[in-house]
Amino acid sequence: MLVIGGGAGFIWPPIGQSLGAKVDGLTSVASWNLDSKNVKDDPKLEGVTERYLKSFGTFMPEQAGEAYAGISVLAAAIEAAGSDDPAKVRDALAKIRVTAGSGAMMQPGEVEFDANGANTRVFPVMIQWQGGVPRTVFPEGVATATVVKP
Questions:
Q1: What's the rounded Cα separation, in Å, for the pair 104 and 73?
Q2: One-character DSSP codes across the chain
Q3: pLDDT at 132 over 90
Q4: Which residues neighbour 75 within 8 Å (Cβ) at sequence distance 6 or greater?
Q5: What is the pLDDT of residue 98?
Q6: Is residue 26 part of a domain?
Q7: Per-residue pLDDT tens for 94-114?
Q8: Less CB within 10 Å around the terminal CB: N or C of the chain?
Q9: Is residue 149 part of a domain?
Q10: Which domain, by its residues, includes 87?
Q11: Per the structure, how many domains does the chain have?
Q12: Is residue 129 one of the residues assigned to a domain?
């Protein structure tokens, strides 16, 4: 039976550690996943996920990937502002458009904000546990695996 979860615990390393091979086939939504096409297609970004695995002994989970991208975009805004003054950084964030580098960790590999501060480029992904790791299966533009029917 195909089981669909709703993010959070369904995509974190402990569920895979707890369920072992029984986790395979579990499908869920995620805000970010370590093998989205924009990450896999960029050796530097893929290297971030590999270093995470080496350092922590588990795959890079959603929150870590989002945090990495967020801090990278913030750093780029500070550089663009030439200052750490909050107002100047906010103005730089409002104008920033990231299409490469560490901030491009978020799918689809672009970050740009609207007038309310929302990232207009990002969208959620569907993952499916395959081989003990969450794999990106949808949308097709960033998927690196296909859904496997249990």
A1: 8
A2: ---B--SGGGTSHHHHHHHGGGGTT-EEEES--TT-HHHHT-HHHHHHHHHHHHHHSS---HHHHHHHHHHHHHHHHHHHHTS--HHHHHHHHHH-EE-SSGGGGSTTS-EEB-TTS-BSS---EEEEEETTEEEEEESTTT-SS-----
A3: yes
A4: 102
A5: 96
A6: yes
A7: 999 999 999 999 999 999 999
A8: N
A9: no
A10: 8-138
A11: 1
A12: yes
Give the per-residue pLDDT at 4. Answer: 83
> For the segment 22-73, what is each residue's pLDDT rounded down to a tens digit?
999 999 999 999 999 999 999 999 999 999 999 999 999 999 999 999 999 9
Sequence-distant (6+) residues with CB within 8 A of 116 are none
What is the reported pTM?
A: 0.90
Supply the angle between the helices 62-81 and 86-95 in degrees, to the nearest 10.
Answer: 110
Report residue 123 as tokens. 């969208």
